[in-house]
Amino acid sequence: MRDPQLFPVRVVFEGEWPRGVRFGSQAYAVIYTGNNLVMNAIAAVWVRLVSVLTYVT
User: What distance in Å separates the CA atoms of residue 48 and residue 54, rounded to the nearest whole number?
Assistant: First the structure.
C-alpha cells in the first residue's frame, strides 16, 4: 500500500453552514476505475470502516 497523497481541498457552502462541520479534518476518497466488483466492494467497506472509526474517536 502506498502512503496517502495529501493535498488541500477548499469546500464552499452556499447559504448556512451544516451543523457539526469540523475545520482541519481529513477525508478519505476512493476512485473507482472500472467494473471490478471485488475491488469496488473492498474499497466501499474500507471507506465505511474508516469513516465509522474516525467518527467514534
Answer: 10
Between CA 13 and CA 4 the distance in angstroms is 26
pLDDT in tens, 42-51: 999 998 898 8
- C-alpha grid cell, residue 31: 476512485
d(CA 3, CA 12) in angstroms, rounded, equals 27
Amino acid at 41: A
> Residue 40: how many CB atoms within 10 A of its CB?
14
| Measured distance CA(33)–CA(40) in Å, rounded | 9
- Model-level pTM? 0.54
- The three grid cell numbers given for residue 5, joined into one nine-digit string: 497523497
